[in-house]
UniProtKB/TrEMBL annotation:
Keywords: Cell membrane, GTP-binding, Lipoprotein, Membrane, Nucleotide-binding, Prenylation, Protein transport, Transport
Coiled coil: none
Domain of life: Eukaryota
UniProt-annotated stretches for the region Disordered: 191-227
The protein, known as: GTP-binding protein ypt5
Membrane topology: Lipid-anchor
GO molecular function: GTP binding; GTPase activity
Major location category of this protein: membrane
Gene3D superfamilies: P-loop containing nucleotide triphosphate hydrolases (3.40.50.300)
Family note: Belongs to the small GTPase superfamily. Rab family.
GO cellular component terms attached to this protein's record: endosome; plasma membrane
Amino acid sequence: MASRPQQGGRPSGTRFAQFKLVLLGESAVGKSSLVLRFVKDQFDDYRESTIGAAFLTQTIALDDQTTVKFEIWDTAGQERYKSLAPMYYRNANCAVVVYDITQAASLDKAKSWVKELQRQANENIIIALAGNKLDLAESDPSKRAIEKADAEAYAREAGLLFFETSAKTSENVKELFTAIAKKLPIEQASQRGGMRSAAGGRPGGVDLGNRQAGGQTTAGAAGGCNC
């Protein structure tokens, strides 16, 4: 059965686990747009840059018996916030490192984030590499600056999940997060009541916004989100 957002309480008898997920990448590669598409199935052509980080949640059902809740930290990509990143990826169970397929330098930045995660994050962290803005390359192939085969080969060598995505058209967005969920230790986490973020808490100094009805999404960040 295809994954789907869980809209109400989870059915009895299902395995339920929650995991901390962090998004990293250069500014304006589309991190917040990917999360907005995943959580609310929306896309905004213009979004302000994230300040610090935004916190959201989304729950998906992998099948009739397995439900996964992501606690998502969407981090700011600007260089001045780089020193804050360890606060968000510390003890994360999974990470999405995003680059823009129309900007060659953004893949180099993504590679540096991957190295940092592999060196300093949870040793069992699941990392996915997402080449975003696929819609731009499909509408005008001359805009593509990073070949899919090259990025895919790097991801394979580094042991990463890999997808090219479009937050605008939603292409491969659900597939990206579903693939991550399938790689997580759901059985182990469900037996322990879910894997929480460090100390069960959230980094301080961040405006988390208001939890929406049903508790499925919590959107908000000081200053909005990066496109």
